[in-house]
Amino acid sequence: MNIGVLGAGAWGTALAIHFALHSHKVWLWTHNIQHVQQLQQQRQNQRYLPGFDLPENLAAVAELASAELIIIATPVAALRQSAQKLVDAGLSDVPIIAACKGFEQQTGLLPQQVLAEVMPKNPCIGVLSGPSFAQELAQQLPCAVTLASENFVWIQALAASLNNTVLRLYANADVIGAAVGGAVKNVMAIATGIADGLNYGINARVALMTRGMAEISRLNQALGGQAATLMGLSGMGDLILTCTGSLSRNRRVGLLLAEGKSLPEALTELGHVAEGVYTVEEVCRQAASLGVDMPVACILKQLFDGCIEVQEMAEILMERAPKTE
Ligand SMILES: NC(=O)C1=CN([C@@H]2O[C@H](COP(=O)(O)OP(=O)(O)OC[C@H]3O[C@@H](n4cnc5c(N)ncnc54)[C@H](O)[C@@H]3O)[C@@H](O)[C@H]2O)C=CC1
Ligand SMILES: O=C(CO)COP(=O)(O)O
């Protein structure tokens, strides 16, 4: 298959390398022309995914080209403008997958909803979600993820055609559940990183993950997602990976905040996007407007708003009135 990938960060590069190694013809586009030239000359993504050679059948490009499948792997903040570039290039009908995780800021839309707004006539819009660190996929270590779309016939066929011995793809018709799980687990990973950085222990980590899942479930239900999806790869799977895996950038932000770094300092040190930082704002806005109780997400927002210190978070959460489970 001819596959086009937009976004040459860690994830776009890992996906492009993976599909090229599995006999697909791939182009990888980024908005930064100097970065395209560096990719073309050095045949490695030194800035975002060092140590992995770009296979011969992977072309780094500055101009969008035709493709049978497009994957957008930019941060959510660049999703709308990337999709608009596709429309401007006459590629608005090409089957498209969003591989980014989060709610769009200001609109509160999930990735597939942003794509549907920009390309309303495209019948094949989906998301890729689930536990998948870029470095491990680039190393071709085994990985299983969710491909979700309302167009189930298409997404099932796509999952079957992209499936291989390294990447196992599970088709799912519940695109809301898949996208909500992928978005909100990043928020919980920052909170868990803070707890771990403050040495609160494994009990606290698992309490945060479990109660975090309760928050994700409530929001998912209010937005129309299925509960069963959150028991799968794009829910529980990605929550466990991101809250516990040392490769997680969101978790790392939490660890840096616990060390006493400010949020801007933590993000500069990270050098990659940590979507949870932006998602938390939208999650709390939606929780408030839908009447959904999301105490962990909202305490994190208070921290980012400068209303509390990291050391106060646990006490505020623990002194809430007792509840039923
Ligand atoms: N890194 C990972 O392991 C995984 C990341 N994701 C998701 O993929 C998305 C991208 O993450 P990463 O690649 O890891 O980020 P990254 O921080 O490694 O790279 C971000 C990339 O986006 C590009 N970019 C920024 N603004 C842009 C714009 N306006 N137009 C086009 N490109 C722009 C940057 O130049 C850079 O190439 C995020 O939503 C993330 O949650 C999902 C699964 C795994
Ligand atoms: O989404 C991811 C893995 O599934 C990557 O998480 P981080 O952005 O926290 O590294």
UniProtKB/TrEMBL annotation:
Active site: K185
Ranges for domain Glycerol-3-phosphate dehydrogenase NAD-dependent C-terminal: 174-314
GO cellular component: a single term: cytosol
Localization in the cell: Cytoplasm
Catalysis: reaction(s): sn-glycerol 3-phosphate + NAD(+) = dihydroxyacetone phosphate + NADH + H(+); sn-glycerol 3-phosphate + NADP(+) = dihydroxyacetone phosphate + NADPH + H(+)
Pfam families xrefs: NAD_Gly3P_dh_C, NAD_Gly3P_dh_N
Enzyme Commission number, as recorded: 1.1.1.94
Enzyme class (EC, first level): oxidoreductase
Residues the entry annotates as binding substrate: K101, R249, N250
Molecular-function GO term, any one: glycerol-3-phosphate dehydrogenase (NADP+) activity
Xref: SUPFAM superfamilies: 6-phosphogluconate dehydrogenase C-terminal domain-like, NAD(P)-binding Rossmann-fold domains
Protein family membership: Belongs to the NAD-dependent glycerol-3-phosphate dehydrogenase family.
Protein's recorded name: Glycerol-3-phosphate dehydrogenase [NAD(P)+]
Gene, per the UniProt record: gpsA
